[in-house]
TrEMBL record:
UniProt xrefs under Pfam families: Fungal_trans, Zn_clus
Name under which the protein is recorded: Uu.00g050540.m01.CDS01
Alphabetical keyword list: Metal-binding, Nucleus
Biological classification of the source: Eukaryota, Fungi, Dikarya, Ascomycota, Pezizomycotina
InterPro entries: Sec_Metabolite_Reg (IPR050613), XnlR_reg_dom (IPR007219), Zn2-C6_fun-type_DNA-bd_sf (IPR036864), Zn2Cys6_DnaBD (IPR001138)
Source organism: Anthostomella pinea
Matches recorded under PROSITE patterns: ZN2_CY6_FUNGAL_1, ZN2_CY6_FUNGAL_2
Length: 763
């Protein structure tokens, strides 16, 4: 047995039959020594009832194996763990150099306020010689963990007490309490495996630096200054342990991580951003921070092209490396769940990991849907949907970061719901959606934040006056579009009469126009024309285009709903789809964007691009095969064919390892076949209306023919093709029912269910 794993090889034949070896293990994995040998720092042979050294020294009567030798040093009553709103002084957040080799007094490796009280004297005598045969670390004194029920609303089981007992002077009971969980061998072993990725310090530092270089210091939610502080203190205090991967020291570091994660973060209104960051790294390192480091490294590796020189320099292979980082982040999240961690850091980890999962597996995967759902659950369980200032003494920077989290969580949930055609899991009707201030991180994370100076640099709506589009600018703008998209979803998925749909649609349109009119001028100019304010800034250009697609995407979804439920014409739908496709083609031509935002570009092609291209392709096919029905063509034939050809080629360039590859690949094939149908010679008269020939044509030639019957719908309650309000004549030969995209995901479902062999060569 490996001694480092807590075991020890013992020759039982060398022990007299009337003597027994003590098999009780200490927390460090070593066999417990008797009190005289322990105090004298002498080697003990661990024999019961008295060790040989004590017999030789004549102190066999004092040879006792105490189960808790340090218990007598703590005679004061154990204080309850602080809550996240507990006040603290600056000394508790000071930078004192410690590591697993030199633990601080009161640290989890020496003494912990979370340990249970010492046993009574009678119990000490009864268990003085108790032997434990269980493996080491299984017998650790069980640590306390918070059991936090989270936010409890007006109809919760506690509401009757909170509303009435206070009137009679009855003190409200505490809803969060402590529960013991063991730090088992399995948890320690899994933790050691997780920490192995931090062995290569150069790789970790350079990938994190590259990530924030690409997004200009504005990550999904984790800011660059805080992440760099975490890395610096982690490597300062535990760099040697992580580099050497010594099993004994790694085990001790894992214990430290577990106990820190079980403790709440402590801050007050005067806590600065850097003080808050230091409270989660160095001697206070937590599993949330380890998971965030892995998630950001994985995002960086996944957003670059596989041929990028940066990946080759570090011998990183996609998609293996991002998957490894995703596994690390998932394991850290599991550790946090075991510790009942429900705080800002866990919320950050859940959000960053959800983004990584989405870029790897695609927005349509159940794993992505599940991960994004956990972010929604955490936001609601923390009560941030009602008030981001949960608890007292919340620092200004943390209030703004919580607002960013809330806005991104809601906007992302509505976007996913519209893409999948599912009800949203979060609704603005039950949330207090307060937008964050458009403040750069350099100001927000200063040691002495001047709120008056920050507010003076913003306009009346909290936007910056410099005219730059930052990630926070994009968040604030999208917060206005997301509720309107939720209203469109309600119309599309709900049960309304035609009159109700028309009335609500007009209300949605008016609210959208009013919101757009109230935005700053440098944002309103994105409504028309090319995104050109930042030609040399790929990140800002992506944000600007995202703002444009926000309101245009709402218009497209609303028009599709009107066509399906009220029989509206398709003119406005086609015009909106044309504008969206032009934007997608324009931004996809920029090599500086495609080279560093590969996953973002693939997602944009799969969602906004494919949605609009499908509308245009079917409209063009209708113009070709129904000239009498399309006297005033909405689309110019030559240019539309060229644009669809370029778009299909863009879809075909998506990396197979990308999460959006399956959708893009099928979209490329079907658009190519529609173009082939348009450009191929017309069918011979004898083929029209012959069912057996149609069947042979489908099986033998692999051509895409589509029946377009009036009011015919596809799967999932699809809606009829725009403008087709009368029965078709016998001269139309189209063999596949097209679900004209009642939901964003219907197109993919149709492609998967169609009888056409998409793998068959074209021609």
């Amino acid at each position: 047995m490996n001694p480092r794993a807590g075991g020890q090889i013992i020759d039982l034949q060398t022990t007299p039959p009337d003597e027994v070896l003590n098999k009780t293990y200490r927390r460090n994995g070593r066999i417990q020594s008797c009190e005289p040998c322990r105090k004298s720092k002498l080697k003990c042979d661990h024999v019961l009832p008295a060790c040989k050294r004590c017999v030789k020294r004549g102190c066999a009567d004092r040879c006792v194996y105490h189960p808790s030798p340090l218990a007598k040093s703590r005679q004061t009553r154990t204080a309850a763990p602080p809550t996240p709103s507990t006040s603290t002084n600056d000394e508790s957040l000071s930078d004192v150099f410690v590591s697993v080799d030199t633990p601080l007094p009161g640290s989890p490796l020496t003494s912990s306020p979370e340990k249970p009280p010492p046993p009574r004297a009678a119990e000490d005598a009864a268990h003085a010689h108790r032997a434990a045969s269980a493996p080491p670390l299984q017998t650790h004194q069980q640590a306390y963990v918070r059991v936090n029920p989270g936010f409890l609303g007006a109809t919760s089981f506690t509401s009757i007490f909170t509303e009435n007992l206070g009137k009679f002077g009855v003190q409200q009971m505490e809803t969060s309490y402590l529960q013991r969980i063991p730090i088992s061998d399995d948890r320690i072993a899994r933790g050691c495996q997780v920490l192995s990725f931090l062995k290569n310090r150069v790789l970790v530092n350079q990938f994190v630096a590259r990530y924030f270089e690409i997004c200009e210091g504005a990550g999904i939610i984790c800011p660059e200054p805080i992440m760099k502080k975490w890395l610096m203190k982690l490597q300062l205090h535990h760099g040697d342990t992580l580099r050497d991967q010594d099993p004994e020291k790694i085990r001790r570091l894992c214990e430290l991580l577990w106990r820190n994660t079980q403790s709440p973060l402590v801050f007050n209104e005067g806590t600065s951003a850097m003080q808050w960051a230091r409270s989660a790294t160095g001697p206070n390192i937590r599993w949330e921070v380890i998971g965030l480091i892995a998630a950001i490294i994985g995002q960086c590796a996944n957003t670059l092209r596989p041929s990028d020189r940066f990946l080759k320099e570090h011998n990183v292979v996609r998609p293996k490396f991002p998957r490894q980082m995703n596994d690390v982040a998932n394991t850290c999240m599991a550790f946090c769940r075991d510790c009942e961690a429900l705080d800002d850091l866990f919320l950050w980890l859940a959000m960053e990991n959800a983004v990584l999962t989405s870029t790897m597996l695609g927005d349509g995967s159940y794993a992505s849907y599940r991960e994004s759902g956990e972010v929604v659950n955490a936001v609601i369980a923390m009560g941030l949907h009602q008030d981001v200032r949960v608890g007292k003494n919340l620092p200004f920077f943390l209030e703004q970061l919580r607002k960013r989290v809330l806005v991104q969580t809601y906007s992302c949930d509505i976007s996913i719901a519209s893409f999948l055609g599912r009800p949203p899991r979060m609704s603005y009707r039950y949330c207090n959606l307060t937008p964050p201030l458009d403040v750069p991180d350099s100001q927000l994370f200063q040691e002495d934040v001047d709120k008056a100076q920050i507010l003076a640099s913003l306009d009346s709506n909290g936007f910056n006056t410099a005219g730059r589009v930052t990630r926070t600018t994009w968040m604030k703008t999208w917060l206005g579009w997301a509720p309107r998209r939720e209203d469109v979803l309600d119309l599309a998925l709900g049960h309304y009469t035609s009159e109700e749909v028309l009335r609500h649609a007009e209300e949605i349109r008016k609210k959208g126009e009013e919101y757009w009119a109230g935005l700053p001028a440098y944002i309103r100019r994105f409504s028309d024309g090319e995104v050109t304010p930042a030609p040399n800034n790929p990140f800002e250009s992506m944000l600007q285009d995202g703002i444009k697609q926000g309101f245009r995407g709402n218009d497209l979804l609303l028009q599709r709903t009107l066509i399906r439920k009220t029989g509206a014409t398709s003119e406005k739908l086609v015009r909106t789809a044309r504008l969206i496709l032009d934007d997608i083609l324009r931004i996809s031509r920029r090599h500086d964007i495609a080279s560093v935002f590969q996953s973002d570009m693939a997602s944009r092609l799969a969602v906004q691009g494919l949605r609009s291209a499908a509308v245009i392709a079917v409209e063009l096919l209708k113009q070709e095969q129904l000239p009498s029905q399309s006297k005033n063509h909405l689309l110019p034939r030559s240019r539309t064919i060229q644009d669809l050809s370029v778009f299909a080629a863009r879809l075909g360039d998506i990396d197979p390892a990308d999460g959006a590859f399956s959708v893009c690949d099928m979209g490329s094939k079907v658009i190519t076949r529609i173009l082939d149908k348009i450009l191929s010679p017309p069918n011979e008269p004898g083929q029209v209306g012959a069912p057996h020939l149609q069947h042979d044509q489908r099986q033998g030639l692999g051509q895409v023919d589509m029946h377009l019957f009036a009011n015919e719908t596809g799967p999932n309650d699809g809606w009829p093709v725009p403008g087709m309000d009368c029965p078709m004549g016998g001269d139309l030969n189209m063999e596949i029912d097209v679900p004209f995209l009642s939901h964003d995901n219907d197109f993919m479902q149709w492609l998967e269910s169609t009888v056409v062999d998409w793998e068959k060569p074209i021609g």
